[in-house]
Design brief:
about 170 residues; single chain; 6 helices; about 80% helix
């Protein structure tokens, strides 16, 4: 990795592994599914906090969202291992993975509070909103990296020297 251009997310070999991996497709499918689950849950949580209605649906929707999050995190770790040979904290996604740990911690704290009935329903829903806020920041981080990856792909197609590590 030391000879990799610092602006590049992937070496040519990592890009090849990324493009060939079924886990890239899995991540590409799970991300929008998780986002839809998030939107539905967010609307149920907000509705419950504002009106007091649908408490059970709101609380359970956060559980479903958390299961979706765990699923995308586990498959994301597998993807990262295939592409970068590290399950987590690969150089290209280090800060996204660090922030993902906060997202996971808050969602897991919600599950614990929900399962053990440690907080009132309203407190649980506020905790869910905090978890969702961090999820949104993390989603923006990954969307930004997706954009950078697309720009890198375009750049690699225009400049054959990038494909050979700089030597023309």
């Amino acid at each position: 990795m030391s000879n990799q251009n610092p602006r590049m997310l992937y070496t040519p070999e990592q890009k090849r592994r990324r493009d060939a991996s079924v886990w890239t497709l899995v991540q590409g499918l799970l991300a929008p599914v998780q986002f839809v689950i998030f939107l539905v849950s967010l609307s149920l949580v907000i509705r419950c906090l504002l009106s007091g209605e649908g408490e059970t649906w709101a609380l359970w929707s956060v559980v479903v969202k958390t299961i979706a999050l765990y699923t995308i995190m586990i498959t994301g770790c597998i993807w990262e291992k295939v592409v970068f040979d590290k399950y987590l904290f690969a150089h290209a996604f280090f800060w996204e993975d660090v922030f993902s740990m906060l997202v996971l911690a808050l969602h897991t704290l919600y599950l614990w509070a929900w399962w053990a009935n440690l907080l009132s329903a309203t407190q649980q829903l506020w905790l869910a909103l905090a978890a969702y806020f961090t999820y949104c920041i993390n989603a923006v981080q990954f969307i930004w990296k997706l954009r950078l990856a697309r720009l890198q792909t375009d750049e690699m197609q225009l400049s054959p020297s990038l494909q050979t590590g700089g030597a023309v």
